[in-house]
Design a protein that fits this description.
- The chain contains 16 helices and eleven strands.
- The protein is α+β, with helices and mostly antiparallel strands.
- The chain folds into two domains: 198 residues, L-fuculose-1-phosphate Aldolase (3-Layer(aba) Sandwich), CATH 3.40.225; 151 residues, Class II aldolase/adducin N-terminal domain (L-fuculose-1-phosphate Aldolase, 3-Layer(aba) Sandwich), CATH 3.40.225.
- A seven-stranded mixed sheet has the order 3-2-1-4-7-6-5, sandwiched between helices. Strands 8-11-10-9 form a four-stranded mixed sheet.
- Helix 5 crosses helix 14, helix 9 packs across helix 13 and helix 12 runs antiparallel to helix 14.
- The protein is globular, with a radius of gyration of 21 Å.
Length: 368
Amino acid sequence: MKTRHDIFDLISISRMYGADSRYVLLGGGNTSRKIGEVMYVKASGCALSDIDETGFVAMSLPKLNAIWDKRYPENTKEREKEILHDMMEARCQGETARPSVEALLHSIIPFTYVVHLHPALVNGLTCSQSGKQSAASLFPDALWIPLVNPGYILAKTVRDALQETGESTLIFLQNHGVFAGADTVGQIEHLYDSIMKKLNRSVVRKPIFTEVKVHAKRVKTVQTAMERFYGGPIKYPMVSNREIASRLVDEKSFYSLSSAYTPDHIVYSGFRPLWIPEKIFEAEQPVEAVLDALRLFEKKHGVTAKIIAVQKTSVFAISEAAMALFLDTVKIAAFTEGFGGPRFMDDEQIEFIRTWEVEQYRANMSGK
């Protein structure tokens, strides 16, 4: 096995994209490099922005390839348990970290370097109604993969597609970003530069994040309720700008922000926001009314709300991470307008991510 000094360029490009919020947020995205029969891939739960050699897992390509010779159970939970075991067994001797859930997909892409990122511009395309058709027009040599479960199922879907169409340097995943593969770091950078330039020219409108005034009394009411519900005293992140204000008019205008676009949004900002109508402030005890809304969401969905959207008021989050991914949702919603409008993950996919042990592990590792 080669030494980790051979992945200096992998570390460099990972940090470059990881530190640029246009390409990836928090712990999202993953990268890899193949050297002989070994693939170095990002460890689950690590952030690209400050990754070092300890943030990569060395994996045996022959052992990963052997996974395709095995038949797995039809039952989702049983299959995922066996896949996880085989992925861990495919690590090279001495490795202890858990590889990215997309390690198997990285292994089948026939290039030295593979970089998977989630730019809001890209997801404006992949999370839109006409994403497939628009991608075919803008990137005719790219591969488009429909919405499927991440991990093994996604890798299998891509593998089948590659066997039909041949290799492709770009793979767009519906509601999941893009994979770029190349044999040099410079070629990877060229691919992403080309993607961003084309999409910048194609979007019809960019989000307007100019700040607007907020209703101070309403904001105080919501924050007081949140402190009591989540455990304070904490100043919870709150934001209101022209883009958000235009979508807080009513539930119809809020639709494009009302669900999850990608797995990362589910992990960090929740599978859906809590919508609170402005009439709640007419209650005899508005703080108690907001508390009731928070309790009802938790009772109905089995989790607490990470994002609270209050009609004609503002949006609140339980953490900076949750707010960062919600603002990413806002950007994507605006970008989808150039590609036929928003297209969320479907309910089955959302439920899979919500209950998937892999994503629960990633969320725990990143402390979100």
